[in-house]
């Protein structure tokens, strides 16, 4: 079981800039918890995501000497990927590839075809620099634009990624439309169909629907889950203001009740939860 903590996703939409020192201190606390991976920052245009314009400075202040947690940085184009790949501390580069043409254009100003071409270059870059590319299939559970979607569409995208050599694909619920009826069939179909790929769940949720979503993905075989302490963040395009990231503390409780050993330092986790309140409130 892999838990990926996503403070980057929690921070990126906040209007008030979080000081670099505050970000660094929070991330250093998270590094003590024992998460598999920390989605810590992004190398994208500061005009697009001003909150994360200091990712390189934050990275320089992280204490990686005693942690088992690996670092993941989000990129939106090849230039950002080249920058991220130049840092030996970063293990994963994450790229959002949308199943929805409309959202791909809005999110990265590229068509799906253009994004796939760039993604192929990123995969080559990662292989040359000993990195792993994580492809997030955004709008993976449906979209509000009327663009084509269904298990066969997601499988077609996944086949393209598998052909490129991509090894990690996270199905992403960008606007919180997923339900057990869409989550379970997708993972149940894709996991056996693509045995070389590790599938993850990046789910957004309302406070009352988180458990049914996690349970559906877990019972369908998913063993990689993204979350954010407090459920902070999520897509600003979501219609429901209560829709946010999957709360990490809820997942910890869920997996504990299913006797899944996550290997976390629960005291460090409690300290991180406390620190989060000062960062985000």
TrEMBL record:
Residues 1-270 form the Pyruvate carboxyltransferase domain. Gene3D superfamilies: Aldolase class I. One of its GO terms (molecular function) is hydroxymethylglutaryl-CoA lyase activity. One of its GO terms (biological process) is L-leucine catabolic process. Pfam families: HMGL-like. InterPro entries: Aldolase_TIM, HMGL, PYR_CT. The keyword Membrane does not apply. PANTHER family: HYDROXYMETHYLGLUTARYL-COA LYASE. This is Hydroxymethylglutaryl-CoA lyase. It comes from Hymenobacter jejuensis. The lineage of its organism: Bacteria, Pseudomonadati, Bacteroidota, Cytophagia, Cytophagales.
């Amino acid at each position: 079981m892999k838990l990926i903590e996503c403070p980057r996703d929690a921070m990126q939409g906040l209007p008030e800039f979080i000081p670099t020192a505050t970000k660094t201190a929070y991330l250093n606390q998270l590094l003590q918890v024992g998460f598999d991976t920390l989605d810590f920052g992004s190398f994208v245009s500061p005009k697009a995501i001003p909150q994360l314009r200091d990712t390189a400075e934050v990275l320089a202040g992280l204490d990686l000497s005693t942690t088992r947690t690996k670092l993941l940085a989000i990129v939106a184009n090849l230039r950002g990927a080249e920058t991220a790949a130049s840092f030996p501390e970063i293990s994963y580069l994450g790229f959002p590839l949308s199943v929805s043409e409309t959202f791909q254009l809005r999110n990265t100003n590229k068509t799906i075809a253009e994004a796939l071409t760039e993604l192929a270059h990123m995969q080559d870059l990662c292989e040359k620099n000993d990195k792993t590319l994580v492809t997030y299939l955004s709008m993976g559970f449906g979209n509000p634009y009327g663009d084509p979607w269904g298990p066969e569409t997601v499988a077609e995208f996944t086949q393209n990624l598998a052909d490129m050599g991509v090894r990690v694909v996270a199905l992403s619920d960008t606007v919180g439309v997923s339900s057990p009826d869409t989550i379970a069939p997708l993972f149940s179909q894709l996991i056996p169909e693509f045995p070389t790929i590790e599938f993850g769940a990046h789910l957004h949720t309302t406070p009352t629907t988180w458990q049914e979503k996690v349970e559906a993905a877990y019972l369908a075989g998913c063993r990689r889950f993204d979350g954010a302490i407090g459920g902070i963040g999520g897509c600003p395009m979501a219609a429901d203001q209560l829709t946010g990231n999957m709360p990490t503390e809820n997942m910890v409780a869920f997996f504990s009740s299913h006797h899944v050993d996550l290997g976390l330092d629960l005291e460090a986790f409690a300290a991180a939860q406390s620190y989060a309140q000062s960062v985000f409130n």
